[in-house]
Amino acid sequence: MPSRIIKNNFRVDRLPHIWCPGCGHGILMRAIAVAIEESNLDKDKVCIVSGIGCSSRAAGYMDFNTLHTTHGRAIAFATGLKVANPDLKVIVISGDGDASAIGGNHLIHACRRNIDITTIIFNNNIYGMTGGQYSPTTPNKEKGTTAPYGNIDKAFDICQLASGAGATYVARSTVYHVNKMVEYVKKGIKHKGFSLVEGVSACPTYYGRKNKKGSAVDLIKEMKHKFIDISAKDKLSKDDVKNKIFMGEFKDVKEPEYIEEYFKIIDMFKKEMSI
């Protein structure tokens, strides 16, 4: 018997999912479903848009209006959707490679425009679906199939990238801190403007195995000890934060939203043309 969350929000006939054993994406997908359920949204006015990659399988399992688009273009499709139908609550689910490499330009311009879309990035630090190539979030010196001697690139911090580009709500949680993930997705959905929530996931099949990080349980235990809340930053010493990663809410501000500004221009044009 499926739980209420599964019954209300998933295409049960598509389950079980095809993610690898130990993958954290199922935890993040469920967190989004819980957040939507608890936000009391009209299902007919929710559209979930995904690109390509492990994360983007989620759109096929979730029982809403869904679009499974091309690689890196989920935010571009979502932007068109939102402009055409501003009443929709548009939620993008994308991976770290899909959003910050192939779709990186779409991401930064959606942030800059502050369009009312919630983007949730499943960050497993690697391209899992296509064989474990290193991605823009693979930590420096760590390995992938295209970096057998270690990645020499500096990794993106997706939350800093989004904040700097102009997103007005930015938060990060992990598959270990799942209650926080639900809380941040709910806030992102409620927020007027471009909201981004990074969900740090676990990929034991490629990222974990390539970097000898142990089992899926070991990867999630590492999150428990490695991530600390940004709200505690000023209370901690340099030793306390050494080799740690901050999570929590990085930005929550109000700024003009793109669609509202766009329709002001339309109204000005109509007035000028006396339409």
TrEMBL record:
Gene3D superfamilies: 3.40.50.970. It comes from the Bacteria. The lineage of its organism: Bacteria, Bacillati, Bacillota, Clostridia, Peptostreptococcales. Residues 52-198 form the Thiamine pyrophosphate enzyme TPP-binding domain. The keyword Manganese does not apply. The keyword Oxidoreductase applies. Keywords: Oxidoreductase. This is 2-oxoacid:ferredoxin oxidoreductase subunit beta.
